[in-house]
Description:
Residues 380-444 form the TRAM domain. This protein is α/β, with parallel strands linked by helices. It has 3 domains: 2-110, Rossmann fold; 134-380, pyruvate-formate lyase- activating enzyme, CATH 3.80.30.20; 386-442, CATH 2.40.50. Helix content is 33%, strand content 21%. The chain has helices spanning 11-26, 50-66, 82-88, 104-110, 165-168, 177-189, 216-230, 248-256, 273-278, 285-298, 317-330, 357-380; strands at residues 2-7, 30-31, 40-46, 73-79, 94-95, 147-151, 153-154, 173-174, 194-198, 235-239, 263-265, 303-310, 334-339, 386-394, 402-406, 411-414, 425-433, 438-442. Strand 3 (40-46), helix 2 (50-66) and strand 4 (73-79) form a beta-alpha-beta unit. The longest helix has 24 residues, at 357-380. The N and C termini lie far apart (47 Å). The mean pLDDT is 92.
Amino acid sequence: MKCCVVTLGCQMNQSDSERIRSVIEKYGYEMTDSEEAADLIGIVACSVRQKAIDKVYSKIAKWNRWKNERPLVTFVSGCILPADEVKFLKLFDLVFRMNELPDLPKMLQQCGVATEFSVRNPVADIERHDERTDFWQVDPTYSSDFEAFVPIQNGCDKFCSFCAVPYTRGREVSRLSGDILQEVQKLIDRDVKSITLLGQNVNSYGLDKKGEEISFAELLRKIGELGKASGKGLWVYFTSPHPRDMTRDVIEAIADYECLAKQIHLPVQSGDEKLLRKMNRNHSIEDYLKIVDDIRELLPTATIFTDIIVGFTGETDEQLENTAKLMLGVKFNMAYIAKYSPRVGARSARWEDDITPQQKSERLARLTEVLKRTSLEHNESMIGKKYKVLVERVDPRKEGAVQARTEGKLPVRITDAPEDLVGTFQTVEITRASELSLTGRLVA
């Protein structure tokens, strides 16, 4: 019996998939990447973007046609809007939320799926804390030997007008710090090189449990102590923070520990004050720039990434230029720029989407040119200097080369490098810089 799990969306969905795979493997299935070879096929969906939801409908239409030819059971989970969930109930054999993951074996039995392991619940012995977060007690089947995602927080209380996450993930809830630290220690013991702490608003960690849990800065310090005590090479990242909760003590914690990576992903979404209020971001440009100043002061080598939306309802040319000015001032190393698309459930879906597709494309191109300019300026300053990198994969485009990333998550192609370097730290000298990437050679 084989199972295939398709993952869409963000790193949180990837983390969810690792826990789903773990439960299914314990139930007796062998995992496969081939949909055609699978007897059980699932998808971890993302209702946040329409394109991702369109892909879900395309997949299930194909899978349901296969049912005419062979036995097949399908399921869907992940980040799902209530309206999409109702539709999915008519298309999939199983629809479950992540907090129901410990009961997945029981659901499979009710669908008539039985294996030699199905006489018992493979997750029945997990310690139950909170029905909203019990799925975190499932040990994941990590998809990499050297990189891992560790969820620390789920849900969102910010209610940005363009975002559906509060309706797909629910309100903010923090994972027990003891469980987080235990998982991080296990990963360190396994010699994992890169750990990313995950949450929809990762730096709001502990705010829902004031007096009961430590703060995000305190959590980082405890993780920093684990990394320091291990004496091993390790980079710890987190994503995504919200500027509203980004405090100086978080940046101070990163500065104090070598293993806490000097890379900050800080979504701004727009550089215009009026548009930020319309987006219900609850931070000003002044607030944002104060955080950037703190980063530049305390973490002078840090790279700064961001998220930006173009073509939001009512956005003017002047407001777009305000975003361009912000980008030029901050000099982002990377910006994930997305064209606005309404999502049912988000407040902005009730407003007229009055920016044409052509205008959105033009505005994305405008900001992409700004990003290329600031990124190239930084990358060229790295030429001739040596950096520690983590080799991530064999380069599919160039034989005898591998792809790596610096501590600041800047991509580096290393030429004349053997494949067995994947998963290891190496030192490279940067030999060439382009707008969004680097090339380097190994330093003995």
